[in-house]
Amino acid sequence: MNEHNFTVIDDGRISQVAATVDRARLRLSPAALRTALGWEVKPQGLCKDDRCMPADGLPDLVTAEGIDLAQFAQLLSRPIAMDTEERVAYLGVAAAERAAQLISLEAPDFRLPDLHGALHSLSDYGGKKVLLVAYASW
Description:
alpha+beta, Ubiquitin-like (UB roll), 3-stranded antiparallel β-sheet, 3 helices
């Protein structure tokens, strides 16, 4: 099992951490988990701030080799996309969180440049109707 630098993307935050890959399992050390995602291994399970998730239901989640990132995402009900060859992993938003956003009928704020490079935020147009046109070459 070799240790490599990995890019972990979570909630728009990009972290570079050391990780190991064993049979397509990506494992982070407890320190790397804390750096990339803000979670810590404690006796009561995996904890972030005042929230703890018991880890005893997934016996391969926390081992001497580290924390299995795919099982960690499963524990939090979050989708994950990983490419171990490219050394990158992305944790998506939990379905319950996405559903709550959709129910609110409020679009998340974002910033995009116009054709002249000027940045515009969706929040700049609060209370006004906005037409967004998206294009992809694929």
